[in-house]
Model the fold of this input.
Amino acid sequence: MLMCLVWISVLQVCSQPYVDLFQLRYNSGFRAKDDAATPFSHFWAGSDLPVKLKEKTYLVFSPTYDQWQFDSAGQHLVFPVVRSLSFPVGFITPLGSSKWSLTLFAIPRWNGEELFSKNSFQQGGVFLMSYAIRPTKKFRLGVYVNDEFFGLYFVPLLGADWRIDEKNYLFGVLPGRLTFEHQLGNKFYTGITFRAITNSYRFSNGQYLRLDDNQLSLFLDYYLSKNICITLEPGYGLFRQLRTGEHRKEYLKEVNWGDGPFIKVSGAYRIRL
Done:
């Protein structure tokens, strides 16, 4: 089977060498030395549930929930807790007997201070074409589009699924996520991951919050058993932005979220492919 915030999680399904049937993730951000970074906490829970239709053809259901909470960090600005609930549905299939395959995802979701409130609904999608140079080396090209509260968000995608050798793997779809993974032993994997996050949430007063983050991190996976994986992931957020607005393409306020360190802990029921 062909395997980031919701569109990153969808792109992970298209590119990972494993399937997380269920995952819980908690991320805590810290204030940097220059005192500019805004501390935050981010909780994420999701599931990837593939349903085999026929040989190499799948439906994938990937429900997710996430929640952001920001500290004012002495800036005298208070943002309410914002949440997201999404139900992505994907279709993955080879194109005849060629080396090409197709991945499509529809992504309905509700983003806001209150879920299912007025004007909190968003609709997005992913289109990816994959080409297998050989079974262990695949490349992907596509687009992601979502009707964000700040306007239509359109992003070209470029990805790889490359098993370099028995212990090294490069996978992901940029700009969402790219991971280099190295197997240390039967129970330990390590590597480096880049994630780019863009998301918008509706406040109860009708305004919206747009957040942008670029996360570079190291990770260590430990398998408690064949399928139970615990991950520790320290990293640093770069070029962060928080912006509020009321109308599309118009921002009322920009806040210096500030670059800074974070620590991420997660647990998953994982099936390696």
